[in-house]
Amino acid sequence: MTKVVSRPTLRDVAHHAGVSVISASRVMRDAPNISDGLRARVRAAANALGYTPNRIAGSLRGQASDLVAVIVPSMSNSVFADILDGIDEGFKGTPLRTVLGLSRYDMDEEEAILRELLSWNPAGVIISGLEHSAAATAILQRLECPVIEVMDSDGDPIDTSVGFSMVKAGQVMADHFLAQGYRRIGYVGAWGELPVRSRKRRLAFEARLAENGVELVDRQIEEDQSSFAAGAAGLQALLARSPEIEAVFFANDDLALGALFHCLSVGIAVPERLALAGFNGLDMRDGITPRLTTIRSPRNEIGARAGRIMLDRVRGRPSAERGRIDLSVSLLQGATT
Amino acid sequence: MTKVVSRPTLRDVAHHAGVSVISASRVMRDAPNISDGLRARVRAAANALGYTPNRIAGSLRGQASDLVAVIVPSMSNSVFADILDGIDEGFKGTPLRTVLGLSRYDMDEEEAILRELLSWNPAGVIISGLEHSAAATAILQRLECPVIEVMDSDGDPIDTSVGFSMVKAGQVMADHFLAQGYRRIGYVGAWGELPVRSRKRRLAFEARLAENGVELVDRQIEEDQSSFAAGAAGLQALLARSPEIEAVFFANDDLALGALFHCLSVGIAVPERLALAGFNGLDMRDGITPRLTTIRSPRNEIGARAGRIMLDRVRGRPSAERGRIDLSVSLLQGATT
DNA sequence: AGCATTGATGGTAACGTTGTCAATTCTGAA
DNA sequence: TTCAGAATTGACAACGTTACCATCAATGCT
To answer: Is there contact between A290 and strand D, defined as CB under 7 Å from any strand atom?
Structure first.
């Protein structure tokens, strides 16, 4: 019966320190009412043995683990990467950890991964968007742990949402276009507007224009995912159909920048002949002349705020925010409008 | 003693189906030797109750969980985002899940997060780079679970590594520059070459040039993180000091593209007056004319391969690869060299 | 002095699952 | 018909931790 050299447990630590298991446990998690001597002895034993707590065991005893299920469509989309960075920042120095689930822009996949992750008894769920499959919504509603929906803030959250308003974003850009005096306006999207968010933005953009008596001249939604190339292609298709357009709003910065490069290379004067505006406020803009006009989406803040709220909720702090949390979007005026 | 309505357990399912707990367990995990009747009854009961297995409990019983600790510097860097996407792809349809740890380009932080994540009894560890703190290396070496180091393949892995050779990458570009006839060559990096990988690449680049009798004219390492702006600034600084330079290798595509935009806007002819090349092969390149010459780093493949190997190892498949796995890098010839 | 309160420590059971072994039933060959 | 072996099902213990309660000593108050 040669015992395999495996990780030391609390029992080992307690034995080594000559105390009871429960006392060792108390020291390790800084419970109150511990004498300095006991604390010192247990600490020493833990160090000597290289003890690492087994959180799996701890989580089983408690009702929930310190794992937070984070479900987003994809990591390659820098929007979600930024959100994840923000969340992790919020978790820094806490026992909370992110367990990742990627939905690949598919509601069924999202539902499946949600079920999967719930089997880890997460302390909370952070999920992107307000739209989910009926079953997923039902599951989320029944959940006892905090559920934070990130990105959108148009609509009612299941529990709490942290995001910004796609409607406002669309309106802000419409107002800007109108203020600049543009009247023959177009729109370019991509990927069949798959993340529904972009459609919300466009509809609000169109509606605000219409309110002011300006009808969107034309729109072009590319099949492919957003990219510089798609932006250039979209713009070309749009202008081929509707050459009178004088200003274009793009679903995101990638598309807009691709279109900008196209304009620069074929000699379309920006913004004199054609004004361009994007959405997101990627750092990328900074090195490009003329600097792109866009709307800053508070991606990092969303993540950090969601992480912090999750922490507060898990800790049971009464100060923890709830409901819809609407971060503001702001126009970043560049030189392309 | 009103029982809180909480998640049903196997006991509930078993009771509902009129069978023993262990039988229910066997049905749920598709163990052999189960009668169709039993299977059907348990399945029905599980559905009726909405049973979700508690993997925390399952993991405690077994020796390791199905969680895989993935430690990378940052999500905002698209290189790691792509790797994570790849890993998750490899885990699709398996019980393996990613628990995320971000080291923020800091070895001490990496060590700390490693310790943190180990307390979840992970089935394996995927960590970026071959360089870790001494303590972290020691921990990783002692680990019983698979350890896969991703990105680099210059050097010896602790257990298994999946990546590409920074040295080869540097050499490939040096050979390309030489083949194109460039002799007055410069280099631009950023962020004090913080991810050590870029320095490895540069040194190999310089060494290969030197082997062929060409001394690097000058190099400029920006303080800031890589960005278009840093690339433009770096190029300007470089040319201010060494205007005779005719070709520049950049630490990555972001820098190179920023420099390219700068050249386009100030009228430096590319590649006639100045040749530019980047590194990574980001999709971004596709929409920009002239298309950037670069080296494709197999980011997604690294992730997918690492994920698959992790799965094979966890499953105990003898086919599971080990040791150093070197993915190839290839030159993507564009129009900037 | 008597008694409640607090501080410090320990014992026991439980969290939900699964590995191990035992018990029972069934199958097919002798 | 009988019996070995397979198929099927179950009982029990254990994984490492912590909640709960118990114990005992020290302290403070009337």
So the answer is: no
